[in-house]
Amino acid sequence: MRRAVFVTGTDTEIGKTVISAAIIQALKKTGVTCGVLKPVQCGGNDAKILREIASIKDLPNIINPYSFNKPLSPHLAAKLEKKNIKEDVIYQNYQILKDKYQFIVVEGAGGLLVPLKESFLMADLIKRLDLGVIIVARIGLGTINHSLLTIEIAKKYGIEIVGIIFNQCQEGDLDICQKDNPLIISKLGKVKSLGIIPYYATLNKKNGYKELTNERLLEEIAAKIDLQYILKEERIEQREERNKFLKEADRNIVWHPFTQMKDYKKQEPLIIEEGKGCYLKDIDGSWYLDGISSLWVNVHGHRKEEIDNALKQQIDRISHSTLLGFGNIPSIELAKKLIEIVPSGLSNVFYSDSGSTAVEIALKIAFQYWQHKNKKKKTKFVNFVNAYHGDTIGSVSVGGIDLFHKIFAPFLFNTFKVKAPYCYRCHLNLTYPACQLKCLQELEDILAKHHEEIAALIVEPTVQGAAGMLVQPEGYLKNIRILTKKYQVLLIADEVATGFGRTGKMFACEWEGVSPDVLCLAKSITAGYLPLAATITSEEIFEAFLGEYKEQKTFFHGHTYTGNPLACIAALANLEIFKREEVLERLKDKIKFLSEELENFNFLNQVGEIRQKGFMVGIELVKDKKLKIAYEWEERAGIRVCNAARKRGVILRPLGNVVVIIPPLSITKEELRSLLNMTYLSIKEELV
Ligand SMILES: *Cc1c(COP(=O)(O)O)cnc(C)c1O
Fold first, then answer.
1. How deeply is 266 buried, as exposed, middle or buried, from its count of CB atoms within 10 A (0-12, 13-18, 19+)?
2. How far apart are CA 171 and CA 173, in angstroms?
3. Which helix (H) or strand (E) is 558 found in, with range?
4. Among 52-56, 509-513, 577-581, whose mean pLDDT is lowest?
5. Which of 52, 75, 530, 551 could form a disulfide with 547 if both were Cys (CB 3.0 to 4.6 A apart)?
């Protein structure tokens, strides 16, 4: 049986409340317990009436969380009363009612495109609640267009239309148009007509719907509605079957990255079906706050309209053509835009598809560069312990996370490995700033001794992400630039994680006024839409590859989908939004808010250190706060906390004992507060 329905109208004042009341009354009669939800009310007292008819005792603010005096669009009515409509609250109330009643009637306000707030429409709420809709339409002249438009919009949003009910709002016999309307609308809209409600003089606005609680009258109306059809829910059965198949196949056929599949098979997989803003919906219809930006990539929220539209338009032109010897428009425009925003001195863009390939390319370019410069001995690389630069063989060679890389040791080329700063557990037992960055000495020693064999140094500027959000002390990056210049070693900045606003500036290098020789970008470059990467070099490097064909100075490297027009157009739309919405400017306040809220975590004995650089946060869990004793990895402290968070409707993914929080830059303060609150409670629940 269907468990709930959303009653919407093609317009306002069309009889939604009458229909809702009739359905409730009829269900009550058949012994089905029926709850009501009126998420938003602007003028009137529909919620009170519905509550009375349903004879339920729930608190009025559960049934009707938002009530405004003026009969205006909710976004405006709320604004006038200086209130904020929170879809979270509505969602939570709905869950409470759903647990309690066999059936819920949710009554909308106005139609599907009515805004609850800017960029959140009634249709978005219906999606959030995962409901099918009954459309109430007027039966008279002009209803065809209104009804079909509503049906179109429901379809566009992927909202299930249960059917349409026609309400006669004017006195008199049905004329030819009124008789034909239901037929033509259900035919053209391919929706079922669920009933035609005749005119009732007592049920009009003028007398304040006096008779709306008249049970006999409601039953008379309900008798004209196809209730059996409304209750029948084929979708649920089909969906259960589909979900069973999906979960089976996900466990047994899909091989998930960085995942022990034996464990994965044992647990209930979380399979995402949709997203909107900072939320993700799974195939069972539950919504989760995306606390890690879908693994550090999403920037402006899911289904950001401008990016969606840019992609759709590009699809209508072309989805892919090759960059091997040919150009395409988005890749050119994007290259130009990237050069405008990256640190100065960088001038040429080499595209690929992932962070790993961006790094792989950077390494090969650095290597080949010195060959062309006739410094043939400069073939080695310097990298940092705990660094993460991707999973292909070259990028693993310059990586330093043993857990990921140990097994491949025989495959990897040797590098000079330098200890990176991890101030909370300083390997020199010093404290910043008194230490005066003594940890740089080891790097200088290696550069001084071996610079003639060293092609480049690779670093994650300001934050070592995968290492556990290790934030470098101020001045560290700047000094690396000074040292690499001094010893004629190229500096490769891997901003795959830090790029595009994550640290609070467009690129992390800006914090220390550093221009690298090579910059690697990926993850957020397309705002989390499509795989794309860019390796950006200085002109000096680019020119070293120019020569006569026979000199073979060509960079012989390229991936088939390099410069894909769809990915590039998404990246262009991403940059456009950064500019138009002044994302970085508006982020400042949110970063401050985040820091303040994070302070609370200090009260937890299981939190050793809170590290933050902009919107990149790592909370290091410890067994003993005083002695900084780490949890054994078998204790799976991070995983347990993240699993607990999932039950609370938040998606997190840890790095060992570090709980990572990297929300989309578009997250609101309210959502941030809720994200942190759930994380806090999850740590408390699992570890305290
Ligand atoms: C994620 C990441 C990579 C690898 O990117 P992929 O797209 O996963 O290949 C490289 N470097 C850094 C710093 C990263 O965070």
1. exposed
2. 7
3. none
4. 52-56
5. 551
* Residue 109 DSSP label: S
Q: How do the domains of the chain map onto residue ranges?
A: 4-232, 305-579, 584-687
User: Cα(first)–Cα(last) distance of the chain, in Å?
Assistant: 42
Task: Say if ligand 1 is within 6 A of residue 494 CB.
Answer: yes
Question: Distance between CA atoms of 343 and 508, rounded to whole angstroms?
Answer: 10
> What residues are paired with 535 via a beta bridge?
350, 520
Ligand 1: atom nearest CA of 354 is 7
Q: Is the pLDDT of residue 14 over 90?
A: no
Is the fold of 305-579 the same as that of 584-687?
Answer: no
Helix (H) or strand (E) holding 144: helix 143-157
Give the closest residue to 450 by CA, choosing from 545, 382, 547.
382
Model pLDDT for residues 569-627, shown as the tens digit of each residue = 999 999 999 999 999 999 999 999 999 999 999 999 999 999 999 999 999 999 999 99
Would you say the CB of residue 355 lies under 6 angstroms from ligand 1?
A: yes
CATH code linked to domain 584-687: 3.90.1150.10
Q: Could you count the other beta carbons within 10 Å of the beta carbon of residue 188?
A: 12
The answer to whether domain 305-579 has CATH 3.30.160.100 is no
Closest atom of ligand 1 relative to the 356 alpha carbon: 9
**C-alpha span between 343 and 355 (Å, rounded):** 19
